[in-house]
Amino acid sequence: MSDGFPALRVVVADDHPVFRDGLAMILRERGVDVAAEVADGQAALDATAAHHPDVVLMDLAMPGLGGIEATRRLAVGYPAAAVLVLTMSEDDESLFAALRAGARGYLLKESAADDIVRAVITVARGGTVLGARVSARVLGAALARPLPEMPRPFPRLTEREREVLDLVARGYPNARVAHHLGVSEKTVRNHVSAVLAKLPAATRAEAVALARDNGLGMQLT
User: Whole-angstrom Cα distance, residue 185 to residue 15?
Assistant: First the structure.
């Protein structure tokens, strides 16, 4: 291989002999060592055990043991062999099943020869490769998931105590906190005492530092 990368050994698993032979020829022309060409998932497992390839190019729809289950078994039994799926299937079910099974790349068979070779090198190096149309769907699925809610700081505090702490962390004296909240200074002092009792802080200054470390008191006015 070029780019200073050692020669790569691959296994090609595809039940279509014309495509399989053509792919193997393309790889060999570019200096890739094609150790075996097989037609089903079980044969891909056997060839991996025998030849210890860097990459297994895996079709999904094959007779007998299919590509998804073969990928899962390879990920468990031969984690050093990166599985690069090369398939006609561009549906979401096949895509996400392959990624969950442990595939490190997913390309469609319409991909250009140079793109396939680059993908082989990338997954062999530990990277991940997704074809352009495939990656757009993965990104869309990720963006569609709701973001997890961030935990609120200081869960032991009541809502009013957290509000008081936020204002104190802004630098407000008790009188200004009282005016802001519409309560008496005595009530504010009681809330501050409760905050100090519930936090790992012995003084008002320590409470302010802790509050600012957790994102409170940052709207200085």
Answer: 80
Q: Model-level pTM?
A: 0.62
Q: Write the CB contacts of 4 (distance below 8 Å, at least 6 apart in sequence).
A: none
Spatial strand order in the sheet of 82-87: 33-38, 9-13, 55-58, 82-87, 105-108, 129-130
Please tell me the predicted confidence (pLDDT) of residue 6: 59
Angstrom distances, CA of residue 54 to CA of 2, 77, 84, 160, 162: 16, 14, 10, 60, 55
First vs last Cα of the chain: how many Å apart? 62
Distance (Å, whole) CA 86 – CA 114: 14
Could you tell me the pLDDT band of residue 4, with boundaries at 50, 70 and 90? Answer: very low
Strand partners, 82: 55
**Domains of the chain in sequence order:** 9-144 (3.40.50.2300), 159-213 (1.10.10.10)
Q: What is the mean pLDDT of residues 87-109?
A: 89
